[in-house]
Specification:
The structure holds 2 protein chains of 2 kinds. Chain A is an alpha/beta fold. Chain A contains 13 helices and 16 strands. Chain B is an all-alpha fold. The chains are: A alpha/beta, B mainly alpha.
C-alpha cells in the first residue's frame, strides 16, 4: 500500500500533533533518549524476531516529525517469558543508565520488576499490563487492561442484554493457582444480583492442546454459555475441539489473536471476545486511523496491526508525553523518577483506543495499582470471517453501551 | 468430582481410546527403535514434528489429497529417521567404540543435539507463523447414543491399529521380521548368519519414524503443527516402551499405550482434569517402585545393542 503524499502526511501530522497537545517549546527537539525494549525476540513468542522494534520505530519517526526528540532503541531479548533473560535484560539496561523502557509479558513474568526499581527504569508494559501479580510496583505501569478481570463486568452486562435466557455458565481456564481463584471470585461478584451461576470451573494446563476431558466436563454441566479463559494459541486449540464436541452453546473468550484464529479455522466462527481489542478495520479516532495507514505503508501491507502493535506505538508516545511534561516543569527528562512523577501528577494520556472523529481517545492509569483505570474495551464476535463489534465498555463494565 | 454416570464414563472412554491409540502408535515406533538398536532416540520428536509440517505444506499449500499427503509425510519422517541413524548415530557409535568409550551417552547427547537443531530449523523455516494448519480433512462430531465421536479420531484409531497389526505381521511372518528379531535378540550372533545389523538398524529407524510421522500427522490435524509438538508425545512414547519392555511385541506395547490413554481419560472422573497427565507418570513411578530396574543391567543391555560392526 502506498503511503500518504508528503504534503498530506505533513497536514495529518500537524493535526494529530495538535490533538496530542504537543507544545513545540517542550517537545524535546534536538535531544536524544535511550529507550530500552525487553521483548520476545526469540523463543515461542518471538515470531517477529528483531522486527519487534518496527512499530516503536514508526512511532519515533512520527514523534520526530511532530518536533520531538530522537530515540535510540536498546533492544534486549526476554526469550519469551524467560525470567533469567528478563533479569539480565534489566541489569544491562540499568548498567547502561537507560532511563525508560518498553517492556512486555508483565515485565517478563515479574522477574524484571526488582531490577526496574533498583536501576530506576520508567517502564510500560503494553503486552501483559500489570496483571494481578505486577501491581503496585515502583516505576512499572501496565498499559493494557487486566484480562479477564477488567472485562468480566462488560461481558456480564452484555449477556444480560443479549442473552437474557442464559443462566448457567461454564469456565475453562488456565490453571494459574491463586490467580484463577481471583478470576472466579471476580466473576461471582458480578454474578450477584443476576440469574447467572457457575455450572463448571474447569482448569487446563497453560499451552495445552488437548481439551477433550475439560470439554466433556463442561458438556456434563449443561451450560448456556462457556467462557474459555485461555489465551494465545490455546483459544484456537480449544475451539477446534469444542466445535466437534456436540455442545452448541456460545463461547466467550478474553483475547483474540490471528494465530488462534488460524489454528481454529472454521471453528472460530461465532466466537465472542471481550477485552481492549484494537480494531484496525475501524479505527475510532484520527490518530488511530493515521497509525493504521502508516503501519500499512511502513511495516506490513498484508497484516493489519493488532493490539500488541497498537500498544507499543501508543506506549512510545506515552513516554514522549512524560518527557514533554518533565521538560515543561523544567526538570530532567532522563531521570526515571521525574518521568514517573510526571505520570503520577496527571495519569491521563492520549490513546489510539476510543475517542471520536475529532478527538483522540484517552487512557488513565490507576495510581494505586499502576494498571489502567480507564480504557476503551469491547465485546465483539468473529462472524463471517470478520470482527463484529457488539458493545463498548470501560474497565469493570462501566460506561457500557450496546452498538448497532 | 464429576458424576459417575454411564454416559460420562463412555465419553471419557472414547476420548481415552483415541488418545491411547496415539500413545500406542508412538510407543510402538519408539519401542522398536530402542529395543532393536538400543539408541535412546530422543530425536523421535523431530520426525514426528517434521511429518506434521510436511503434511501442512502438502495439504494447505499444494492442495494434496489427505491420504496421499499423509503417506508422503510419513515417508519423509522415515527417510529422516533412517538418515539420522546412518549419518549420525552409527558413525558416532563406531567412533566412540574405537576410542574405548561407551556409546550410550554419546548417542543420547547426539540425539539431544538433533532435537535442538531440528526444532530450531523448523521454527526458522516458518518464522512468521507459530503454528501451521493441516487441511484436507473434514472433521466433524458424530453422535452415537450419548457419546460424540469425531471422524478424525475414528480415522486415527482405525489407521493406527491397522499399522500396528501390519507391523506385528511383518515382524512375525516375514524374512525381514525374522532378521529384525534376530538382531534384537543378539546382533553379534546375527552377523554369523549373514545379517548386517547396521542395515537392520536403518530399517527399524525408518519403520519407527514412519509410525511417528503418522502420529504427528494426526496430532497436527487435530491441533496444528508447531515446532515443539513432538516433545510431549516423546515422554509418553518413552514411558510406554519402557514399561512394556524392550523386547515386547508391538501388540503388547500398543495395548499398554491404549491402557495409559484410558487410565488418563478416566482418571478425570476422580481427579481435576489438569492432573490427568500425571497419572501416566504415577504409573511409571509405581512400576519402577514395584519392579526395580537394575540400572546396570539395563545399561549393559542397551550398550550391547548399539555397536554393530559394519561387515566388510
Amino acid at each position: 500500500m502506498a503511503g500518504l503524499s508528503s504534503s498530506a502526511q505533513a497536514a495529518q501530522i500537524a493535526q494529530i500533533s495538535q490533538m496530542l497537545g504537543v507544545n513545540p517549546k517542550y517537545a524535546g527537539k534536538g535531544m536524544t533518549f535511550d529507550v530500552g525494549m525487553s521483548y520476545p525476540v526469540t523463543g515461542p513468542a518471538g515470531i517477529f524476531g528483531a522486527h519487534v522494534t518496527d512499530i516503536p520505530m514508526l512511532a519515533m519517526k512520527h514523534i520526530g516529525m511532530m518536533g520531538g526528540p530522537k530515540f535510540n532503541i536498546v533492544l534486549k531479548d526476554n526469550k519469551s517469558g524467560d525470567p533469567q533473560a528478563g533479569v539480565q535484560s534489566v541489569r544491562e539496561l540499568g548498567f547502561a543508565h537507560v532511563p525508560m523502557m518498553l517492556t512486555s509479558e508483565v515485565a517478563d513474568l515479574a522477574a524484571e520488576l526488582t531490577g526496574i526499581k533498583q536501576y530506576k527504569i520508567f517502564s510500560l508494559d503494553g503486552s501483559g499490563g500489570t496483571s494481578l501479580f505486577g501491581q503496585h510496583r515502583k516505576y512499572f505501569w501496565g498499559t493494557i487492561a487486566i484480562t479477564p478481570n477488567d472485562a468480566i463486568g462488560g461481558v456480564v452486562k452484555y449477556m444480560l442484554k443479549a442473552m437474557p435466557s442464559a443462566k448457567k455458565i461454564a469456565f475453562c481456564g488456565w490453571d494459574l493457582g491463586g490467580l484463577s481463584d481471583v478470576v472466579e471470585d471476580d466473576a461471582q461478584k458480578y454474578f450477584q444480583g443476576t440469574n447467572f451461576t457457575l455450572a463448571a470451573n474447569e482448569r487446563s494446563k497453560m499451552g495445552a492442546t488437548d481439551y477433550s476431558a475439560n470439554i466433556q466436563k463442561i458438556k456434563e454441566s449443561d451450560p448456556d454459555v462457556v467462557w474459555a479463559i485461555v489465551y494465545a494459541e490455546d483459544v484456537g486449540y480449544f475451539m477446534k475441539q469444542y466445535a466437534t464436541s456436540g455442545i452448541n452453546k456460545p463461547v466467550f473468550t478474553f483475547t483474540h489473536t490471528l494465530a488462534a484464529q488460524q489454528i481454529a479455522g472454521p471453528a472460530y466462527e461465532g466466537l465472542y471476545f471481550a477485552f481492549d481489542y484494537f480494531d484496525a478495520k475501524r479505527p475510532e479516532n484520527p490518530w488511530a486511523k493515521f497509525f493504521v495507514d502508516e503501519y500499512a505503508a511502513n511495516v506490513s501491507s498484508s497484516i493489519a496491526p493488532d493490539y500488541y502493535g497498537a500498544n507499543s506505538y501508543e506506549d512510545t508516545f506515552t513516554l514522549w508525553q512524560c518527557i514533554m511534561r518533565v521538560l515543561k516543569a523544567g526538570g530532567n527528562p532522563k531521570d526515571a523518577t521525574q518521568l514517573d512523577a510526571a505520570l503520577q501528577k496527571n495519569p491521563v494520556f492520549p490513546s489510539l483506543y476510543g475517542g471520536s472523529s475529532t478527538q483522540v481517545g484517552t487512557i488513565e492509569f490507576d495510581l494505586e495499582t499502576h494498571s489502567v483505570k480507564h480504557r476503551e474495551m469491547m465485546v465483539a464476535q468473529f462472524k463471517n470471517g470478520s470482527i463484529d463489534q457488539l458493545a463498548h465498555f470501560d474497565v469493570g463494565g462501566t460506561n457500557f453501551k450496546m452498538l448497532g | 468430582m464429576q458424576g459417575l454416570n454411564f454416559a460420562n464414563f463412555l465419553q471419557l472412554a472414547v476420548n481415552g481410546l483415541s488418545n491411547g491409540t496415539a500413545y500406542a502408535l508412538i510407543g510402538v515406533g519408539f519401542g522398536l527403535i530402542l529395543g532393536v538398536s538400543g539408541r535412546f532416540h530422543i530425536a523421535f520428536a523431530i520426525t514426528y514434528t517434521l511429518a506434521a509440517y510436511v503434511m501442512a505444506m502438502l495439504t494447505t499449500w499444494y492442495g494434496w489429497n489427505f491420504w496421499l499427503a499423509m503417506l508422503a509425510s510419513a515417508l519423509a519422517a522415515a527417510i529422516l529417521g533412517a538418515l539420522m541413524e546412518r549419518l549420525v548415530y552409527l558413525p558416532l557409535s563406531l567412533r566412540a567404540l574405537s576410542v574405548g568409550s561407551d556409546p550410550l551417552l554419546v548417542m543420547f547427547v547426539a540425539s539431544l543435539g538433533l532435537v535442538v537443531i531440528g526444532r530450531n530449523a523448523i521454527a526458522l523455516a516458518f518464522l512468521s507463523q507459530t503454528s501451521v494448519n493441516i487441511s484436507g480433512f473434514a472433521n466433524s462430531g458424530q453422535n452415537v447414543g450419548p457419546v460424540t465421536i469425531t471422524t478424525l479420531n475414528m480415522t486415527l484409531v482405525a489407521t493406527s491399529w491397522a499399522l500396528i497389526f501390519l507391523l506385528t505381521a511383518v515382524l512375525n511372518y516375514t524374512a525381514l521380521g525374522r532378521m529384525v528379531r534376530a538382531v534384537r535378540a543378539n546382533w553379534e550372533m546375527s552377523l554369523c548368519i549373514g545379517i548386517d545389523p547396521s542395515v537392520i538398524f536403518v530399517v527399524v529407524f525408518a519403520i519407527g519414524s514412519f509410525l511417528s510421522g503418522v502420529a504427528g500427522v494426526f496430532q497436527g490435524t487435530l491441533t496444528s503443527a508447531t515446532p515443539d509438538m513432538g516433545l510431549p508425545p516423546l515422554f509418553y512414547a518413552l514411558v510406554v516402551a519402557f514399561v512394556a519392555g524392550l523386547t515386547s511385541s508391538p501388540i503388547r506395547v500398543a495395548l499398554l499405550g491404549l491402557a495409559f490413554g484410558e487410565l488418563e481419560a478416566l482418571s478425570s472422573l476422580f481427579l481435576p482434569t489438569q492432573f490427568a497427565p500425571l497419572v501416566v507418570f504415577a504409573i511409571l513411578f509405581i512400576y519402577v517402585a514395584m519392579r526395580p530396574v537394575k540400572l546396570a543391567d539395563l545399561r549393559r543391555s542397551l550398550s550391547r545393542r548399539k555397536s554393530p560392526a559394519i561387515p566388510g
